[in-house]
Amino acid sequence: MTRSVLRYVKHRITQRPDIEVTFQAECQTCEWKARPSTDGTTVDVECMSHTGRTGRPGLRSTCTSFAMVTRVGIEAVSAR
Ligand SMILES: [Zn+2]
Predict the structure, then answer these.
(1) Model-level pTM?
(2) Using alpha carbons only, how large is the chain's radius of gyration in Å?
(3) Ligand 1 centroid to 23 CA: how many Å?
(4) C-alpha 51 – ligand 1 centre gap (Å)
(5) Which of 13, 23, 46, 50 has the fewest CB within 10 Å, making it most exposed?
(6) 45 CA to middle of ligand 1, Å?
(7) CA distances from 8 to 13, 31, 69, 72 (A)
(8) Which of 79, 26, 73, 74 is closest to 51 using CA atoms?
């Protein structure tokens, strides 16, 4: 007979504070892309300018951040 011991460890996922969020956007009609920036307002303004010049309202916007998972009560988890 085989026995198993189950151990539960709580984890938390957070956004890494040392890496800023990056905003990007691209037109869904043509090849235009906004310059990636850590300032979302700058990207929004570039999108509105593109739409104003071309009349193309559809844009794909992305926001990229980096996550870190830690065990609750422990600062960092080392790879094993
Ligand atoms: Zn376009």
Answers:
(1) 0.71
(2) 21
(3) 18
(4) 7
(5) 13
(6) 14
(7) 16, 48, 15, 11
(8) 26
CB 23 within 8 A of CB 62: yes
Structure-token match 């926001």, residue found = 63
Could you tell me what percentage of the chain is helix, strand and coil, using 3-state DSSP and rounding each to the nearest 5?
20, 30, 50
d(CA 62, CA 50): 17
The environment of the single-atom ion ligand 1, i.e. residues with CB closer than 5 A, is: 27, 29-30, 32, 56
- Provide DSSP, 26-56: EESSSS-BPPPBS-HHHHHHHHHHHHHHH--
Residues in a beta bridge with 37? 23
**Residue 8 CA to ligand 1 centre (angstroms):** 50
